[in-house]
């Protein structure tokens, strides 16, 4: 009987160890949200979002915001889904472990009940045997306590003697058997008590573990539910932003066509401006030549009027604002409209309200609202390097120089995010004879 109990305890220990090992393996083999959403991943996503802002420059703020939000949600979904899968796996493992501990507790409680029943039977048998021995001892005492030999010698005949010996042997044998049963019952009772103490301790331990397992299972279920809510929320956001983007695409395409038409109109104006600038330059040179000839005829020296040049000795144009260049001139693929379009200038990443200066001396030929360009100033710098050079300053929050001549470095306005702009910055352009060129060739 003790061997079977020992086997039960060994099987319980093995099962418990196996269940614990499975739970630990599940807990440490699956990725968690903290692992999935690392600092490096966040930096990567932030960089992608920043690139989106550049790609969407010239797009209406509402559409750009909806599309950036859509991309941000899509970037968050993989980590959220991984966290959900992790939480669900842990919830399943915790529930499995909780079930296993519950079964082990049921087995231990059944063993406790059986051990209690066995102990009761053993104690009853011990009590019965003890009563038999006590009664026999009382009879022996009351009968004088005759020995086996004295009983035999009291016979009155040979047959009586033989019968008395047999009876005496039988009584002795029964007495010895009862004593042996008493000793065995006592030993079995002690063993059963020891086992009962052990199994009760096992039951108490399993109860504590069952409570902990249930608490862990409930916590894992709650975490899985929270993770599911997060994923569902992101999916709902994604659908909402995707709908906003889709609903605004047609309007945005119309705005893009309008902006292209404005650029074409502006180019035509500037081509005419270039023609006039060339005529003015030719007239200037002719006047200077005539002045030089008149001076020579009069025997005097002639010094032509000084022309604007960069006092730093660098490129012809100075920087329009104190800030770093965040986006260069060049072709860009519009991620919403799926078209290539020219980013016609260079962007300076500066806060709204930053002073903006004229990059060289010239004449303000336009100052005011420029549609998608927002508040815009255009300055003609005359013929430089054989071309008519015009600079534009766009998305301004306010304009200071509304017309007339300006000097290099003169305050002309303040940066902003008016028109089609995704954030505070200065969009600076250079045009040669009405055509956009890379400002890097001039600054």
Characterise this structure.
The protein is α+β, with helices and mostly antiparallel strands. It folds into two domains: 2-249, Helix Hairpins, CATH 1.10.287; 317-441, Distorted Sandwich (Glucose Permease (Domain IIA)), CATH 2.70.70. Helix content is 63%, strand content 15%. It contains six helices and 13 strands. It has helices spanning 2-29, 33-36, 39-55, 61-142, 148-153, 158-297; strands at residues 325-327, 330-334, 339-343, 346-348, 355-357, 362-369, 375-384, 387-396, 398-399, 404-406, 411-414, 426-432, 435-437. Strands 1, 4, 6, 7, 8, 10, 12 and 13 form an eight-stranded antiparallel sheet that branches. Strands 5-11-9 form a three-stranded antiparallel sheet, with no helix packed on it. A two-stranded antiparallel sheet has the order 2-3. Helix 1 packs antiparallel against helix 4 (61-142). The longest helix is centred in the middle third of the chain and has 140 residues, at 158-297. Mean pLDDT is 79; it is low at 1-37.
């Amino acid at each position: 009987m003790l061997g079977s109990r020992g086997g039960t305890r060994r099987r319980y220990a093995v099962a418990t160890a196996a269940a614990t090992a499975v739970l630990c393996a599940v807990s440490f083999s699956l990725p968690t949200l903290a692992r999935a959403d690392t600092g490096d991943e966040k930096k990567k996503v932030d960089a992608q979002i920043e690139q989106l802002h550049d790609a969407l420059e010239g797009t209406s703020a509402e559409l750009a915001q909806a599309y950036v939000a859509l991309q941000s949600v899509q970037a968050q979904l993989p980590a959220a889904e991984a966290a959900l899968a992790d939480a669900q796996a842990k919830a399943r493992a915790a529930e499995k472990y909780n079930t296993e501990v519950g079964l082990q507790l049921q087995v231990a409680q059944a063993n406790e009940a059986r051990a209690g029943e066995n102990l009761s039977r053993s104690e009853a048998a011990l009590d019965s045997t003890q009563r038999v021995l006590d009664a026999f001892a009382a009879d022996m005492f009351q009968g004088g306590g005759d020995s086996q030999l004295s009983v035999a010698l009291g016979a009155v005949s040979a047959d009586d003697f033989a019968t008395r010996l047999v009876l005496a042997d039988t009584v002795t044998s029964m007495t010895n058997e009862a004593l042996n049963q008493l000793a065995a019952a006592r030993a079995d009772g002690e063993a059963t008590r020891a086992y009962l103490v052990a199994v009760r301790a096992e039951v108490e331990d399993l109860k504590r573990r069952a409570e902990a397992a249930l608490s862990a299972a409930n916590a894992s279920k709650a975490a899985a539910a929270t993770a599911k809510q997060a994923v569902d929320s992101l999916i709902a956001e994604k659908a909402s932003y995707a709908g906003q983007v889709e609903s605004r695409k047609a309007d945005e395409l119309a705005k893009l066509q309008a902006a292209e038409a404005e650029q074409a109109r502006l180019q035509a104006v500037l081509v005419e401006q270039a023609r006039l600038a060339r005529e003015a330059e030719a007239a200037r040179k002719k006047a200077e030549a005539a002045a030089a000839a008149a001076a020579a005829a009069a025997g005097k020296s002639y010094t032509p009027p000084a022309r604007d040049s960069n006092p730093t000795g660098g490129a012809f144009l100075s920087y329009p604002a104190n800030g770093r260049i965040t986006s260069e001139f060049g072709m860009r693929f519009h991620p919403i409209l799926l078209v290539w379009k020219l980013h016609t200038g260079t962007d300076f990443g500066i806060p709204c309200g930053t002073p903006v200066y004229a990059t060289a001396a010239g004449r303000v030929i336009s100052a005011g609202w420029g549609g998608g360009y927002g508040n815009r100033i255009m300055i003609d710098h005359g013929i430089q390097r054989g071309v008519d050079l015009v600079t534009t300053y766009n998305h301004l929050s306010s304009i200071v120089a509304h017309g007339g001549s300006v000097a290099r470095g003169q305050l002309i306005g303040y940066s902003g995010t008016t028109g089609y702009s995704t954030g505070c910055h200065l969009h600076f352009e250079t045009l040669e004879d009405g055509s956009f060129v890379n400002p890097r060739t001039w600054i």
